[in-house]
Design goal:
The chain has 180 residues and is of the alpha+beta class. The protein has six helices and five strands. The protein has a single domain, classed as Lambda Exonuclease, Chain A, CATH 3.90.320.
Length: 180
């Protein structure tokens, strides 16, 4: 008897996508003698630490470790009202957890904290996926630790939604044949 396939996370779906820019980046790091596994581990650890500090401030009012970063967070939050933090969401095809949802200027916006300085296609897909679970009036990436806001303007979300649903079908088909 086949066990039911669990719903994939949004992150698992996005891992299916080819990311050719990463190949060039990894090659450049290697040519400079940098071990990308070590660099990636440190980067992930730093990002996770910042996320935890931000979450702790949102939920427990614990200031961030670095005063300058905490001041940046306070300035960013100045005109916003917190609605939800680290909220689990579920769609019929996937699950996820967004960083924060806040009201700003009368609009409810889902924000994703990212340590990159660019907004990538995958980040747009991720935010659209969250909005498929919880409709909202806006989507944004917050570049940390600077707390620079990048609102995501998507005129037509439908193609993004089709991509997400197609990725869910690919993920499930791979699970069926044991290719994960």
């Amino acid at each position: 008897m086949n066990k039911p396939i669990q719903k994939p996370s949004i992150s698992a779906l996005l891992q299916i996508l080819d990311k050719p820019a990463l190949l060039s980046w990894a090659n450049k790091q290697g040519l400079e003698g940098i071990n990308i596994q070590d660099l990636r581990a440190k980067s992930m650890q730093d990002g996770l630490s910042l996320h935890r500090q931000i979450q702790n401030f949102h939920t427990k009012q614990i200031p961030m470790n670095e005063e300058k970063q905490h001041a940046g967070l306070l300035a960013f939050l100045q005109d916003k009202e917190l609605v939800a933090v680290e909220n689990a969401v579920e769609h019929e095809c996937f699950v996820g957890r967004y960083d924060v949802r806040m009201k700003c200027g009368g609009r409810e916006i889902i924000y994703d904290y990212k340590s990159s300085n660019k907004v990538y296609f995958e980040q747009r897909l991720q935010l659209v996926a969250y909005s498929m679970c919880e409709p909202c009036e806006g989507l944004a990436v917050v570049h940390i630790p600077q707390f620079r806001l990048a609102e995501i303007k998507i005129e037509n979300r439908e193609p993004y939604e089709r991509i997400i649903l197609a990725l869910a079908k690919i993920y499930n088909a791979r699970m069926e044949i044991g290719e994960t």
